[in-house]
UniProtKB/TrEMBL annotation:
Enzyme class: lyase
Species per Swiss-Prot/TrEMBL record: Calderihabitans maritimus
Top-rank taxon: Bacteria
Coiled coil location: none
Protein name in the entry: short-chain-enoyl-CoA hydratase
Lineage, highest ranks first: Bacteria, Bacillati, Bacillota, Clostridia, Neomoorellales
Any one GO BP annotation for this protein: fatty acid beta-oxidation
Entries under Gene3D superfamilies matching the protein: 2-enoyl-CoA Hydratase, Chain A, domain 1, Lyase 2-enoyl-coa Hydratase, Chain A, domain 2
InterPro entries, per database record: ClpP/crotonase-like_dom_sf, Enoyl-CoA_hydra/iso, Enoyl-CoA_hydra_C
EC number: 4.2.1.150
Keywords: Lyase
Record pathway: Lipid metabolism; butanoate metabolism
Catalyzed reactions: a short-chain (3S)-3-hydroxyacyl-CoA = a short-chain (2E)-enoyl-CoA + H2O
Entry GO MF terms: 3-hydroxyacyl-CoA dehydratase activity
Length: 271
């Protein structure tokens, strides 16, 4: 596994990976191409997400771009070369692109997208795969694929309706219109809007707050919400119940209950 410590960047070409305590940070880093997605980004993101998932000390993950641009979608030159036919498009997206969105969505702990500037197309879909989204006042969102004769292929047609409702999602998908940070907050897409120079500070503050929570309980909480959303209510409630019961066998839960009864701050052992 690649070793990454605070202040030391992992050696990738198109992304930067850092670790600050229990928080991992993956930043898109193709400034000359507006952080657009190409094969190199997909490959490096896959490796980085694998490393972050295997790092038992890492509890929360932040995904970011730069202050000027989160990401301007997929590299269209790359798309035209890799997916000139339906068959090749199927191979490319199923084998090389979509697994990245799944890896990000299935990261065990909470994930936070810190979004500034343009957040379009496939890069916006990376933010949709995160659990929480914090936007700077400069953020501009959109899924403009319809204007190219395409549709979103990184989960946008499925995750956006689950976040903002079907009617609003259809409007944004059908028109391909862009919208600003305040509109994103109004429709429930982002959790918070902050000044550009406070974006990473706010994302790290949230990440560190979550990193102090009992990790296994957070993982089961995420599992209960994400998987429960896909189940009929009776089965979702049963899943919640199994997760709830399982946590009573953990030292974290025992410490949390003791601390509450003793009127003190809990010191979770992490198991």
């Amino acid at each position: 596994m690649l070793k990454y410590e605070k202040g030391v960047e992992a050696m990738y070409e198109s992304i930067i990976v850092e670790k600050e305590g229990a928080v991992g940070i993956i930043s898109l880093n193709r400034p000359k191409k507006l952080n657009s997605l190409n094969l190199k980004v997909f490959q490096e993101m896959s490796d980085a997400l694998k490393e972050c998932t295997q790092d038992n000390d890492l509890k929360v993950l932040i995904l970011s771009g730069s202050e000027k641009v989160f990401g301007a979608g997929a590299d269209l030159k790359m798309i035209s070369e890799e997916a000139p036919t339906s068959l090749k498009a199927h191979y490319f997206f199923s084998r090389q692109a979509l697994p990245i969105y799944h890896q990000l969505a299935e990261f065990p702990g909470p994930t936070i997208a810190a979004i500034s500037g343009l957040a379009l197309g496939g890069v916006f879909e990376l933010a949709l795969a995160c659990d929480l989204r914090i936007a700077s006042e400069t953020a501009t969102f959109g899924l403009p694929e319809i204007n190219l004769g395409l549709i979103p292929g990184g989960g946008g047609t499925q995750r956006l309706p689950r976040l903002v409702g079907m009617t609003k999602a259809k409007e944004l998908l059908f028109t391909g219109d862009t919208f600003d940070a305040q509109e994103a907050y109004r429709i429930g897409l982002v959790n918070k809007v902050v000044a550009p120079d406070r974006l990473m500070e706010e994302a790290k503050y949230m990440a560190n707050r979550l990193a102090q929570k009992p990790a296994f309980a957070l993982q089961l909480l995420k599992k209960a919400v994400n998987q429960g959303m896909e189940l009929p209510l009776p089965l979702a409630l049963e899943l919640e119940g199994r997760c709830f019961e399982l946590l009573f066998s953990t030292e974290d839960a025992k410490e949390g209950i003791r601390a509450f009864m003793e009127k003190r701050k809990p010191n979770f052992p992490g198991n």
